[in-house]
Every structure is written in structure tokens, then in C-alpha cells.
Amino acid sequence: MLDAIIVLIGALLAIFSVAVLTYPLVRSRSRGQPEMLEAAGEEGLSELDSIYESIRTLQLEYGLGKVGEDMYRQHMNDYRLRAATALRRRDEKQTDAALLLEQQVLLARAAIVDADGSPADSSGPCPSCGGALDQNAAECPKCAAKPGFSGPDLQ
Amino acid sequence: MSDLGAISLWIALVLAGYAAVGSVVGKVRNVPALVESSRRAVYLVLLALVVATLSLVASFITNDFEVAYVALHSDLAMPARFTWVAFYAGNEGSLLYIAFVLAAVSALVVWRVQPSLRDTMPYTTAILMVIVVFFLAVMGFMANPFDKLPFVPPDGEGINPLLTHLGMFFHPPALMAGLVFTAVPFSFSLGSLIGGKTGDEWVDAGRVWGLVAWGLLASGLLLGSWWAYTILGWGGFWFWDPVENAALMPFLGLTAFIHSIMVQKRRGMFRMWNILLINVAFGLALYGMFMNRGGPVPSVHSFGASSLGWTFLIFLGVGVVVPLIVFFWRYPLIKSAQRLDSMISREAAFLVNNLLLLAVAFVTLWGSVYPLISRLFTGNEITVARPFYDQVNGPLFLGLLFVMGVGPLLPWRRTTPAGVGKALLRPGSFALAVVVVLLALGLRQPYALIAFGLGAMVTAGIFLEWYRGARSRHRSMGENYLLAWLRLIGANRPRYGGYIVHLAVVMVALGIVGSSFFGTQRDVVLAPGDSFTIEDYELRFMGTVEVPHSNRTEFVSTIEVYRDGRLLEILYPRRDFYPAFNMAATRAAIRSTPVEDLYVVPSENLADGKVGFRFLVNPLMWWMWVAGPVLVLGTLVALWPQPSPARARVAARIPAGSRASPA
């Protein structure tokens, strides 16, 4: 009797494992796009943290008298420059990821239209930033401008 | 239950193989679903190994002596609390423990992966799972803990008496976990390298898991030393035994790595060096497993000896050669973001520290493998003894203590010789004062004087920095000194966690130097009523009583300890005889104070009631054991996560209403 129970538990473990492993292979939903955006959001944060940490250490060492005034200023300027570069690189990456995502959304929408034989989609360029914008949307996903908005007010 | 354990082991092996292959195929062929499926397989490996582990525990608890491993490592008289120790008392159980720990940490790593590592995570997963596959395959084909005997014996052989010690509850699992955890930063490094990410993406994860492995190894080594000190009966704590060395070497490699990785984290430097260092640390961890589980040389750990040597040796070879091939393949892509500004900087101190640590590791490696090499080439096994290690490693350890004192005083990037002089002035003066006082007290051993002086310099440097930092906060923020100090540490956890660990190292050094240079040892035979004087202690042997137990007979001696005619303490050292093993195990009685240990152990019980005793006075040993908790505390402080300032600033830039809400 005990042997049968043991074999049964073993078999259940094996069946459960197969089910858990095959589920991602048969389901259709893709997690690629959210992960791509999340990765872009994380882009450079580690480098920025490292620079902030360096600045904090520099301030500590300056406060402890280990670093002189000239070296403190020189290193601080250096870190600021690195931080600015990292921030610019991060912004570029995020913009690239957002544009890529917009392109994919447009392509997907076009594919749906082709399949349905429905009229052309209602998307067009945003009058503010030039990015893709669904005319039915309340605001541009990139710059938050309203669809009727014609451009930034330079005044 | 053992059948369920055996089935679970095979299921775990298949799942781990699937996870290893599926991760790589899914990544290379760009099939995210297969990568996801393989990721899930990692959790299932853990589940299967939980079942296998519980099955073995159940077999022990139910005294299922049909299972050969249970019959070999327990008996009916074994208290239930020793089930934990019996579990890893032999090779088969140790391998299951190792596979379980590795599966658990792999599941954690896969679950908590940081977004910047997701791209290379399939490779990391595959590497971890290949290691799991190795241990599971060894178990499945060569050392299965669920193998059955052809008959059911009425009782088991019992647990090895040397293992029935409190230290054994923590020392082996901590050491084995430490060795296994080294695989995690190694896998991150190698996975990133294979995936073409040759920058700093893996640094945060590598540092955290490297620190965890380091903390476990350090705790395991200290607990092992304590075990040796109290049970092996020779009054020492470190024998330079090949298995001890095998745990020390990866510890040294990891010590170098967790220092060096800070330079990469802070400055983007030492990228190649860190990859090589973690490869070395992992190679040494594999060597540790080979020595520990392969049993190629005799040692005080001979209860773990086995015939798995060649299997582990081959795995060691693969584990060393493959990462090197990947390293040279990716070599053209690996470039540091910064160069060393100056040789007078904290980065340079880290580099010197690394070189010294590796030197100690390789001296120890040479001493450990020399018996194997001599056996291979001459047919005679020549063992390298303690004087070799003391003479070669002693000065290197002093060098390390010096760098530990000077390094933290140096700022990052660069400073001037005048700056170094200024920083060294007070700690150096304090160290000099300590040496002068010790000379005045009559100490003449140069090594000991240098070690005490350097220890004083390290300690003074740390406390001076804490004082200055706390004073600065006290003045600028009005915090009281205690609060200012706590907040100073809280705001700079990796730095000051490291300083706390440095204090623990100084405490360990005190114990080593005190007992090595100033210890006194006497071996005498005493009859009941006899007295003996060692240093300023008078020891009176009152007699021995026999205490029978189901599996052993205890011979408990009573020693009264007097100083200046005043009774200080009564000690009860004992010697236990285990008929089933035909062996005796001693339990030293120790009167421990911060100044010195009085150590009493009965080395032989003679027929006429006389007892051969070993008496030792070991100065400063107390500090060595107190260092353990301090070391763990420092590691935890260094590990405790700090909020990410970059993430906080990014969050602050996004209007609250526009943040994504959880689904």
C-alpha cells in the first residue's frame, strides 16, 4: 500500500512538472514588450547609483580630511560630468525603446486592419513631438500633448 | 519513503538537465517561451530536491536501516537532534545537501534577477543547472543516499562520535554552502561573458552573492576551528590539514574578489581581473569539494573519505578550463572604463591586498597538493607540515594586516605622499606606542610585536575615522555621538560593514599570535590528589568517574583550578569511549577569559586511576571566538541593501499620477 502511495506521489510530481514546463510553451501571451520597457527604465541606474555612491564617499572623505579642497573640486566635477553623460545615455535608450514600441504597436494595428479588412487605422503623427499617436487617444503617450494641440507655445 | 526520495532525485536530474539545455537553446534560437519554461524548471528542481531531502530526513527519523546511508550514519541510540548532523555525515548525504542548497539559491537567483541581467540570465541559469546536474548525476550513478541494503539490520552503526558536537551543527553546512554559493557570482560573471555583456552589469549581483559565500565560508572556518580546539584534544585550532586548506583557499580567493569588485563597482576598473578572480575562487571551491568529498589525502576529516576523487577531479578540470576558454574568447571585448590614477590610492591598496591574498592561497595550494604530486612522481607521499605554512604564510599575513591598516586610510583615486603621512600619523603613532609598551613589558618576539603593532594601527584607524565621522555629524546635524555613529554606519554600509569585519580579523589575529607565540603546553600523568602548576595556575586532580551511556562510556575527570591559593573554578574534562567505533573522543574543559584560556584535556585514562593530561595556557584565544559574531555582524551590515539614489531620483521626476499602477 505504502509503495503504491509513493509511486503515486512520484508520478504526480512528474506530471505536475510536465504541466508547469509546457504551460509557457503553449500559451500565446508574450512578455517581451513590457520587459523591454522595464529594461530600458533600468538602463544606467546601476551606473548612476555607482556615481552617486562615489560622490557620497568623496563628500565623506572630504569631511574626514582625507581629501584636500582642490582634489575634492576636481573629482566632484569629474563625477558630475560622468553623471550627466550617464543620464543622457539613459534618456537616449529610453527614447529608442519607446519609439521601437510605438513602431511595433503601429505594425500590430496595421496587421489587425489587414486581417479584418476594416478601414485604415486612426493613428497619425503627434503635432507636438512627431511620435505615433492614435487620434482617439486622450493624449500622446510620449509627450502627453492633447490630439488637438498644435505645438509648444514659445511665448 | 526512501523510494520517493530516489524517484525525486531522478526527476530533479531530468529537470535540471532540461533547464540547462532549454535556457541556452531558448536564448540562442530566440524562443522566449522555452527560456521561460526552463526558468520554471529551476523551481521544480528545488521542489523535487525538497521531496528528496525530506525523504532522507524521514528515513533517519523512522530508523529505516534498510537504507544503507541511514544504517551507516545512525543507530537507535542516536538522539533525534543529531539527524541534522547525520544527514551530511557521509558523502551521499553531503551531496544531497549541496544539491539542495545550490537548487535553492539558483531558484532565488532566477526569481530575484535584476532587469539589467535578464538578457544574460539564460546562460547564468544554464551554468548553475549544469553544476546541479553534476551533483545529481554523481548521486544517481555513484553515491545514491537512497541505496538499499540486501537485508534490514536490527540497528545502525551510529553517528561518528567526532560529529556529536555543537560546532558540527553549523560548521559543515556553512562551509559546504559557502563553497556552493561561490558558484553564483561565478555563474553571473560567466553568463554575462557568454552573453557578450562585458561591462559592469553583473557587478552588483556578483558582489552580494560573493559576500554571502564569503560570510558562510568565514563562519564555517571559525566554527571548524572551534570544533577542532574543543574536541580533537591537541589544544590547537588549525592543523593546515588538506581539507582545512581546501576551505581556506576559496575563502582567500573570495576575500580578494569582494574587495576588488568594489573597485569595479565604484570606478569601473579591474573588469578582467574580477572575472579572473571569481574564476579562481570558483576553481578553488571546486578543489575544496574535490578534497572534501573526493577524499584523495588523509586528514582529520577522514570520516568524509570516498572513492569519488576522479569524478570530482574531472569536474574541477572542466570548471577551470571552460571559463578560461570563454574568457579568452571574449577578451577583446573586456575593457576597463577607467585607469589606475595613482599607486597611492585605495584602488592600489586593494590591488596589493589581492596579490597578497592570492599569494597565501597559492602557497597553501602548493603545500596541499605536494603530497599528491610527490606520490605521483616519486611513489612516496611527502606531507608538508606546519612550519612550511608558518614560515611562508606568516610574513604574507603580516603584509595583509599592514594593507588592512593603510588601505582604509587612503582616499579613492589618488593622494599625495604628504597626504598619506598625515593620514598615517595618528594610527601609526598609536601602533608605535603599543609596540613600545609591549617591549617595556618584556615581549621580544619580532613577529608578535609587528602583528600587535599592525593590529593596533588597524583598530586605531577604524575608531579614528568613526570618531571623526560621528563628530562631523554631531556638529553639522546636532545628533548625539551614538546616533551620529549609527547613522554614519547606516549611510555607508559597505564601507563600515567592511571595517567591522576588519576589527574581527584583528581579533582573530590576536588569538593566533597569542596562542602561537606565548602559549604554554605541558603533558603530565597525575594520580587522584596530585597537583600540577602551569603558569600561575595550580591544578589539583581530584579523580575520575565512569558514566555509562547506551553508546559510550564517559570518563569524567575533576580538576580544581587555584590561583594564589584561591579556588577559581572546577573543570570537568572528559574522555568518551565508543565501543561500536572502538575509538575515544575527548571533550576539553576550558576556562576562557579575554586574557587567556586554561585548557585541560585528558589524553589517556590509565588502569590504576591515573590520567595523562595535556594542560595548556593559550593567551588571547577568547578574542578569536568572539570574532565570529563580530564578523557575521560586519558581513550583514555590508550586505544590508541601501536605497538606490538613482531610482529615487528617477521616481521623483515622474509625476505621481502617471506612474503605472499594479495590475
How are the SSEs ordered, and which strands pair?
The complex is a heterodimer of chains A (155) and B (663).
Chain A: H1 2-26, H2 32-42, H3 45-63, H4 69-116, E1 123-125, E2 132-134
Antiparallel strand pairs in A: 1-2
Chain B: H1 2-28, H2 32-61, H3 68-73, H4 83-87, H5 91-111, H6 121-141, H7 171-181, H8 183-194, H9 203-231, H10 242-267, H11 271-294, H12 309-330, H13 346-378, H14 386-406, H15 417-440, H16 446-477, H17 481-491, H18 493-518, E1 520-526, E2 531-534, E3 537-548, E4 553-563, E5 566-571, E6 574-578, E7 583-587, E8 589-592, E9 596-605, E10 611-619, H19 621-639, H20 645-653
Antiparallel strand pairs in B: 1-10, 2-3, 3-4, 4-5, 4-6, 6-7, 8-9, 9-10
Helix pairs in contact in B: 1-2, 1-6, 2-5, 5-6, 5-7, 6-8, 7-9, 8-9, 8-11, 9-10, 9-19, 10-11, 10-13, 11-12, 13-14, 14-16, 15-16, 16-17, 16-18, 18-19
Written description of the protein model:
The complex is a heterodimer of chains A (155) and B (663). Chain A is mostly helical and 155 residues long. Chain A has helices spanning 2-26, 32-42, 45-63, 69-116; strands spanning 123-125, 132-134. Chain A has a two-stranded antiparallel sheet. The longest helix of chain A is centred in the middle third of the chain and has 48 residues, at 69-116. By secondary structure, chain B is an alpha+beta fold. Chain B folds into four domains: 1-160, no CATH class; 165-338 and 345-400, no CATH class; 401-518, no CATH class; 520-622, no CATH class. Chain B has helices spanning 2-28, 32-61, 68-73, 83-87, 91-111, 121-141, 171-181, 183-194, 203-231, 242-267, 271-294, 309-330, 346-378, 386-406, 417-440, 446-477, 481-491, 493-518, 621-639, 645-653; strands spanning 520-526, 531-534, 537-548, 553-563, 566-571, 574-578, 583-587, 589-592, 596-605, 611-619. In chain B, the strands form two sheets. In chain B, strands 2, 3, 4, 5, 6 and 7 form a six-stranded antiparallel beta sheet that branches. In chain B, a hairpin with a 4-residue loop joins strand 3 and strand 4 (553-563). Chain B starts with a helix and ends in a 10-residue tail after the last helix. In chain B, 52% of the residues are buried. Mean pLDDT of chain B is 90; it is low at 657-663. At the A-B interface, helix 1, helix 2 and helix 3 of A face helix 1, helix 2, helix 10, helix 15 and helix 16 of B.
